[in-house]
Write a structure and sequence with these properties.
The complex is a heterodimer of chains A (348) and B (342).
Chain A: H1 20-31, H2 39-58, H3 65-90, H4 98-114, H5 119-142, H6 148-166, E1 171-172, H7 176-183, E2 185-188, E3 192-195, H8 196-214, H9 216-226, H10 228-233, H11 238-264, E4 266-267, H12 275-285, H13 297-317, H14 323-347
Antiparallel strand pairs in A: 1-4, 2-3
Chain B: H1 2-6, H2 10-26, E1 34-36, E2 39-41, H3 43-66, H4 74-91, H5 98-126, H6 130-149, E3 154-155, H7 159-166, E4 168-169, E5 172-173, H8 174-192, H9 195-204, H10 206-211, H11 216-242, E6 244-245, H12 254-264, H13 276-296, H14 303-318, H15 320-341
Antiparallel strand pairs in B: 1-2, 3-6, 4-5
The chains are: A mainly alpha (348), B mainly alpha (342).
């Protein structure tokens, strides 16, 4: 198996007159010998470093392992969602259902545990709920040719409605096994606190990385995003892959729900409202193009960390109100999208 | 008969009639309209009045979708318009006066128009995909609305402003009149002039229509600006309905409802041909559905589930594959007598 990411079209395109900024950037890239494909991710990394240094200069204890470890703990479910979303967006689709599926999975976990079902059965079951909804969405998208936007929107309404049918009020989770699993933690290197959720999230990232870059499935995902018709003509299993990416995303959302249930130790129908937007924002900030075909799962993880750090900074600042988070995320999105636009203009 | 079932609006209208029929069975006087205190009163009037904000948003959305775009920011614009107008009225020395209210409305509409122009700029000039360009304002917009209300839920008392959302004129709800006249105006504008055709041509093939001399950029920019303006008007109606500016919840999910209404009405998200009357039916279906759930006594929180079922049913019925299999069955049935005769 060749360990290369899929070839991107036009990497060696002649340098046609593009915007000044794009040219300068690619000159920098050439000098540093960075593949242009990695430019957006490098951009995300720079922003991350920038936020970290600004935070480190402004506040004491900001650059402590404690804060950084908590960044992973508080965002583990969002990392899992963003990973699943990356698969869908790489094929040029979009998944609006993940926030609601996360809530459905968390609510089902709480409901089933409350009913006395053993945790060993509940945990795989709620992940499976996500997979099933993902599969149904995939069938709608591929077999019935419904637009991903509408199909996942229906999935979102469906899952959210089902949440309220299952649990009109919040259900606390008191199951001993489940609480024990969610409360387990270990200190890596004596200072870095890692919980079950973080372990699971990192395992998902590793698995996704392997799937995308070392398997036929992963290459087909990139190929569909690059051009569905071409992928079809090359004899790649387009149909199967298009359904599978929604299954992957649904499964990730189901798993995200499980992690959220561990994090909040309860199931509440209104959790994860608009969380799909956070996931999409993380993926976009992480350098994945919404047109599909370009992007990396590690970029999405960096995107989640950027979002989490913004939240942390605003908490540290104290005087800034929570709504600034939204405005800053919007501005960051704008900067990244315009940057990507400049880079793609340069390429075509 | 074939012509009727083939009509693009056949299934949406069937869905609407089925909903109304179900309601009438459940409550026989459902469709009755009476006159109470000089106002029209009854469930159909409620539906028309509740439908007004969604109608306005969906109207702009239809035009945007026809150009192959999408506007996710409408909910945020609704919140901003509501927050702006109510904050302005609350801080003015004379909240009740008509001039204050008119000024508040003008400010809110002006800002909404600017927000729409901003979206249009990102899409048509910078060339960002509509979904992501409007996602920016969708995320940041609620923050901006909260910035305006300072995180509080601003409540005001201003009878003049209240008229917009819950007043009556000649017995008809003012909100319905506003939405209705905007609808008629837009319908005349796009169907009696070449504008509608230009919008469709941009949606079908932007490059080709540009080469044919259509100012694609201006058209796209205009529809986004209109979408912003209409959303602002919807925001004013919603704010005047509750007389409280809730930056978090005003217009929450209205973008999804509007997109649903457009899709149920048969306008494809791929752009091109659009149907304003389809959107009208779509809006009525969604509003009736919401009202039905309340009447039957199911928690309104479960409404999304029913919306999902309607969307799935309508989109599947409109899906090419299902249509083909229907058509194939009809052909087979038509062909059978011949086979027998041979």
């Amino acid at each position: 198996m060749a360990a290369v990411a899929p070839e991107k079209r036009g990497t060696e395109a002649p340098p046609v007159a593009g915007p000044q900024r794009g040219r300068r950037m690619s000159t920098i890239a050439r000098r540093l010998r960075i593949d242009r494909r990695y430019m957006p991710v490098v951009g995300t990394f720079v922003v991350l470093a920038l936020i970290l240094s600004v935070g480190g200069v402004r506040y004491d204890n900001f650059l402590s392992t404690n804060v950084l470890a908590n960044l992973f703990i508080n965002n583990s479910f969002l990392i899992v969602l963003a990973v699943g979303m990356t698969f869908v967006i790489l094929t040029g689709g979009i998944d609006l259902s993940v926030g609601a599926v996360l809530a459905l999975s968390a609510v089902s976990a709480a409901y089933l545990l409350d009913a006395g079902v053993p945790a060993a059965m509940v945990m795989p079951a709620v992940v499976l709920i996500g997979s099933i909804i993902g599969f149904l969405i995939g069938v709608m998208v591929h077999v019935f040719d419904v637009q991903p936007f509408i199909a996942t929107l229906a999935g979102m309404f469906f899952a959210r409605g089902l949440c309220f049918v299952i649990a009109p009020v919040a259900i606390p989770i008191t199951d001993e096994t489940f609480v024990a699993i969610s409360a387990w933690d270990t200190w890596v290197g004596g200072q870095w606190r890692v919980t079950t959720s973080v372990m699971i999230a990192l395992a998902v990232v590793a698995l996704a990385f392997y799937l995308l870059h070392y398997t036929q499935f992963g290459r087909t995902v990139y190929a569909i995003g690059g051009g569905e018709q071409s992928a079809q003509l090359m004899g790649l299993p387009v149909a199967r892959t298009k359904v599978l990416v929604y299954v992957v995303s649904g499964t990730c959302a189901g798993l995200g729900g499980l992690l959220f249930a561990m994090y909040s130790r309860s199931g509440y129908s209104l959790t994860g409202v608009a969380m799909e937007l956070d996931a999409i924002a993380a993926v976009v900030i992480g350098g994945t193009l919404l047109t599909g075909g370009t992007g990396f799962v590690l970029g999405s993880v960096l995107g989640v960390l950027v979002l989490g750090l913004i939240q942390t900074i605003i908490t540290f600042e104290g005087t800034l109100s929570s709504w600034w988070t939204k405005i800053v995320i919007g501005v960051l999105l704008l900067i990244f999208v315009v940057l990507q636009r400049v880079l793609t203009l340069r390429r075509t | 008969m074939r012509e009727i079932t083939r009509h693009a609006l056949f299934w949406p209208v069937v869905a609407l009639v089925a909903l109304l029929a179900a309601n009438t069975i459940y409550r026989p006087d459902f469709l009755g309209v009476t006159i109470l205190n000089g106002h029209l009163f009854g469930a159909p009037v409620d539906i028309l009045r509740n439908a007004a904000p969604l109608m306005l948003v969906a109207l702009g959305m239809t035009l945007v979708i026809a150009t192959r775009g999408i506007d996710l920011s409408v909910g945020a614009v609704v919140a901003i318009a509501g927050a702006l107008s109510l904050s302005f009225i609350a801080t003015s020395p004379n909240p009740g006066s008509v001039s204050t209210v008119l000024l508040a409305i003008a400010i809110a509409l002006g800002v909404s128009l600017v927000l729409g122009v901003w979206n249009g700029f990102l899409v048509s000039v910078v060339g960002i995909q509509p979904i992501i360009a409007t996602l920016i304002l969708m995320t940041a917009g609620r923050g901006i609305a909260m910035l305006i209300t300072e995180g509080q839920i601003t409540t005001v008392t201003s009878p003049a402003f209240k008229t917009l959302g819950s007043g009556f004129w000649l017995g008809v709800p003012v909100a319905t009149l506003v939405a209705g006249s905007v609808f008629v105006l837009v319908a005349l504008l796009v169907r009696r002039t070449a504008l509608g055709m230009l919008v469709e041509s941009v949606g079908i093939n932007p490059a080709a229509s540009r080469l044919a001399g259509v100012k694609a950029r201006t058209i796209v920019w205009t529809v986004f600006a209109l979408s912003g303006l209409f959303s602002g008007l919807a925001g004013l109606i919603l704010a005047s309905n509750v007389m409280a500016a809730d930056a978090n919840n005003a217009g929450l999910f209205i973008e999804l409802d509007a997109i649903l209404a457009v899709v149920i009405g048969g306008t494809s998200l791929q752009g091109g041909k659009f149907s304003l009357s389809g959107t009208f039916v779509g809006v009525l279906i969604i509003t009736t559905l919401t009202l039905t759930v309340t009447i039957v006594g199911i928690s309104p929180l479960v409404t999304p589930l029913f919306k999902a079922l309607v969307v799935i049913a309508v989109t599947l019925l409109q899906s090419p594959r299902i249509r083909e299999s229907f058509a194939a069955r009809a052909r087979r049935r038509a062909a059978r007598p011949e086979e027998v005769s041979v």
